[in-house]
Amino acid sequence: MARVVVIGGGFGGMASAARLAKLGHDVTLLEAADHLGGALEPISQDGFTWDGGPTMTLLPAVTRDLFRKSGRPLERELDLEPVEVIREHRFEDRTRVQMSGGSRAAQLEAFDALGKGLGRQWVDFVASYAEDWEVLRQHYFEVPWSPTALPREVAALLESRETMAKRIRRTFKDRRMRLVAGFPFEAEGHNPRDVPAWAGLVHYLEQRFGAWTVPGGMHQVTGVLEQRLATRKVAVLKGTAATDVVLRGGRVVGVAISGPDGEAEIESEMVVSAIDPRRLPATERYADRTLPAMPPQVFHLGLKDAPELPAAEVVLHGDPLLVVRASGNAWTVHVRGRLLEDVTVALARHRLDVRDQVVSRVDLGPRELVGRWGGSPYGLLWMGRNTVRHRLGPTTPIPGLYAAGAHATPGAGLPFVGLSAALVAQAITTDTGGGDLRA
Hints:
By secondary structure, the chain is an alpha/beta fold. The protein contains 15 helices and 19 strands. Helix 1 (11-22) runs parallel beside helix 15.
């Protein structure tokens, strides 16, 4: 087994460290901040607590597999509960539609209520991704891949010139339907014209598997994973930044660090980078053909006697696009687009007037969030079909260096980041002579 250093203590780094330690490797985890969690870190003020990042996840099997493969099953540590109504879309013409997860029938009925025949259009659109999901799941999402040895079906998808915007325009004439279909990408800062059409399979995952959350906040995943790292005897160095990967003869031999005791080097046979590659001189040049997807403006509002929202998320379509998430009296609002007024005024225009109920507030801009998290949890900005080929991960051109986390996946969120950690564990197991173990 090998000495492995994992750079970055977000979900991707913690998941990679836990898996590798369970496989018998001697693992050290480096985190520049004084806490683990990255974007999962909660925000607290005046007695209110908000999730700093995701409030729910798709593909719960990814998180369950992580805990099962690193020790005790997730169910012994946390409750993971389904979200019945994931999202309510509200449009500028005052119509609305609710999206239930894990139910084709419920989505069919909801869209039929929006307009005759729209239900059939929607479920047929979602069903068109079933084959894409199976192909990519078997040969791309769950298996380390090589651009020079792609199965024919995967190559056909990755090389297709069809964009998300083209598929949406071809499928839907109703503008509201187009807004719903393009929402996941615009919410993450992408232009659907630059997103490959196959990425729309997120709608299929949502309809088939539903969305899931942890009662009390997704930030609790961090504490449970930190305990798992301790159980697996991972050496966790907080407040310790990796300044570069140390190479000898073109191969990884360690990591240069800057910490409380000054600058030093940690010897390592293998390194997993779970941070933006732009932050390390050794990998920066491999990221010169990509850009990070920036976070939205985020407003955390602490309210008195907050109204109950009809869904886990309420999407207010317009310019700007507003996404409202609520946990009791703690509301979080994500804003994409031009915000020319106070966010509470913008909410009031959409008939969510809480201006007189705000008792606490935390406003965070995109750059402030990137600084707080040490990078963007939204990963790479889609810049066309070749974006997947320009990113690093799970392997890299540098022998002994692997990549996990949001910048090493074709999508943001816990499912894709969790899958990237599984791929890294599988690649390292293969490279150390352990065979093709789906770790």
